[in-house]
């Protein structure tokens, strides 16, 4: 059995967290490949190492040196090494890192050094081999991951390795330059390594005991989700539920590897299991709904034209206007003689909305174009809903009783998700009403 474990920033923040991580790893010899983030905040007023490294880069560009910010990084690593009496000479490693940052003058290289140093120190602490992610993870010149090449590299590099610590967040491109994923990207590294070594389990250790059914700021009693399928998770993360980087799902999905979100500070909690559809088991008579997530601030442009269904190319012409303005479309609910496009309002600022509406008028000569702003989208996700009658009835009844006016409905053909649009002012009420209706 092989387990790949990724530890996030809070799990690497100080010597106490390092001790906790060591206990977890050594308590199970299947925990063979360890991916680490850079140390995060020790308390809420602290600075993350990665944020400080980005500040180093700004300092370098502005002054040609990285004195002030790099001192903070030195102090953090010194503190961990000294307090844990780790057998490593960290000083020359920090000196070399500082010179390399100055010489390379690259934001991505600079940002990657948090994970690099963190993995070197953790490897020494555990007595595991340090394997640099740059040897395995390959990006193209546009900064996109070359998944297949990387997978091969991971397989060959780790074939005979028993235990290793690998830095998260970065790899390199074909010219040898270090490239990083987007923020929170160590989750993706963990997922890539899990796929490459054909792990039985990818444990993602963080500071919460798994995904909650919905945002606890809205429903304080929201319980953790015990099991969720990859696709459900994808829907919820798309709608803003964060814990795991949204892109981290793809490599493990290919290898059908289970992910367990676990809490470093409460290792006994079962956390959330993320599984393929065919491995999902309904525990007892659990709810048909897995989770609820939402995002605010969308604009719905509703286009009405009689007999639009008989007009060849109608939708294409509408979409070409959106493409002309370089707009991403979130949803396209349609009805008889109506088509709505849902766009993040952020993209329609500074007069863009008016220009888009005018161009749609010119391009497709609609009967009406109606714009609704300040809309929130709320996704109620559960793969069980396709097999049960009455899920949407329950949802809509509950919202009607609570007096929430539904402005838009979109149930994708996957039957995994019912997305509704409500006024921003109804956002919280809508989520808590759905939670109460199903849990
Ligand atoms: N250290 C990086 C960040 O703060 C990557 C990670 O932690 O996953 O975004």
Task: Compose a concise summary of this entry.
The protein is of the alpha/beta class and 439 residues long. Helix content is 38%, strand content 22%. The chain folds into two domains: 3-277, Carbamate kinase, CATH 3.40.1160.10; 291-438, VC0802-like.
Structure description:
This protein has 439 residues and is an alpha/beta fold. The protein folds into two domains: 3-277, Carbamate kinase (3-Layer(aba) Sandwich); 291-438, 2-Layer Sandwich (VC0802-like). The chain is 38% helix and 22% strand. The protein is built from 13 helices and 17 strands. The protein has helices at 15-26, 49-63, 67-83, 90-104, 107-126, 147-158, 186-196, 230-238, 249-255, 314-324, 352-364, 391-401, 427-438; strands spanning 3-7, 31-36, 129-130, 138-139, 164-167, 170-173, 178-180, 201-206, 227-229, 258-263, 272-275, 291-304, 334-335, 338-344, 368-381, 406-411, 417-423. The strands form three sheets. An eight-stranded mixed β-sheet has the order 3-5-2-1-8-10-11-9, with helices on both faces. Strands 13-14-12-15-17-16 form a six-stranded antiparallel β-sheet. Helix 6 (147-158) crosses helix 7 (186-196). The protein is globular, with a radius of gyration of 24 Å. Aspartic acid binds at residues 9, 37-38, 48, 50, 114, 168-169, 183-187.
């Amino acid at each position: 059995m092989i387990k790949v474990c990724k530890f996030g920033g809070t799990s690497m923040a100080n010597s106490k967290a390092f001790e906790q991580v060591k206990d977890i790893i050594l308590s199970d010899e299947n925990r063979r490949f360890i991916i680490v983030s850079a140390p995060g905040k020790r308390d809420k007023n602290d600075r993350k190492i990665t944020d400080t490294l980005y500040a180093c880069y700004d300092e370098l560009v502005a002054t040609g040196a990285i004195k002030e910010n790099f001192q903070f990084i030195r102090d953090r690593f010194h503190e961990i090494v000294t307090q844990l009496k780790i057998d490593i000479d960290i000083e020359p490693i920090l000196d070399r890192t500082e010179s390399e940052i100055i010489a390379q003058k690259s934001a991505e290289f600079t940002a990657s050094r948090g994970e690099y140093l963190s993995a070197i120190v953790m490897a020494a602490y555990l007595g595991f081999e340090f394997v640099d992610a740059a040897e395995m993870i390959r990006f193209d010149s546009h900064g996109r991951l070359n998944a297949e090449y990387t997978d091969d590299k991971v397989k060959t590099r780790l074939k005979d390795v028993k235990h290793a610590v690998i830095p998260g967040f970065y790899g390199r491109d074909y010219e040898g330059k270090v490239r990083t994923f987007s923020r929170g990207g160590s989750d993706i590294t963990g997922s890539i390594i899990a796929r490459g070594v054909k792990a039985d389990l990818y444990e993602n250790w963080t500071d919460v005991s798994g995904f909650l059914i919905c945002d606890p700021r809205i429903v304080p009693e929201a319980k953790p989700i015990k099991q969720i399928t990859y696709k459900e998770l994808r829907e919820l993360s798309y709608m803003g539920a964060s814990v795991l980087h949204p892109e981290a799902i793809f490599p493990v999905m290919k290898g059908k590897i289970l992910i367990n979100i676990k809490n470093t500070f409460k290792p006994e909690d079962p956390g959330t299991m993320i599984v393929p559809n065919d491995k999902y088991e309904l525990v007892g008579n659990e709810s048909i709904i897995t989770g609820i997530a939402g995002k605010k601030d969308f604009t719905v442009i509703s286009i009405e034209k009689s007999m639009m269904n008989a007009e060849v190319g109608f939708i294409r012409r509408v979409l070409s206007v959106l493409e002309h303005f370089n707009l991403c479309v979130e949803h396209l609910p349609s009805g008889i003689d109506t088509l709505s496009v849902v766009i993040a309002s952020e993209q329609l600022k500074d007069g863009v909305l008016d220009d888009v509406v005018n161009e749609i008028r010119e391009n497709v000569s609609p009967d009406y174009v109606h714009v609704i702003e300040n809309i929130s989208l709320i996704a109620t996700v559960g793969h069980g809903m396709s097999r049960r009658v009455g899920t949407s009835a329950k949802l809509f009844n509950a919202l009607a009783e609570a007096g929430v006016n539904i402005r838009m409905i979109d149930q994708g053909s996957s039957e995994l998700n019912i997305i509704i649009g409500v006024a921003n002012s109804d956002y919280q009420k809508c989520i808590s009403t759905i939670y109460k209706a199903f849990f």
